[in-house]
Predict the structure.
Amino acid sequence: MIEFDDQTLDYLQIIHDGPGGGPRSAYAFFLGRMDWMTNTSDLKTSDVEDFIINFYSAYNRRFGTRY
């Protein structure tokens, strides 16, 4: 399981919910990719799914149910 701090959860939520966002962009941002908003086609779907489940669970535990 991935450990997120509050600041990372905030950033990921903004990216996930923003224009051009979503799970793939949030994962690419988390990986530190500069192209997180435009080029995520090379990310494996299973990796994105695993990441986003961890993010949703951590966010909901910390800030209440949103996802």
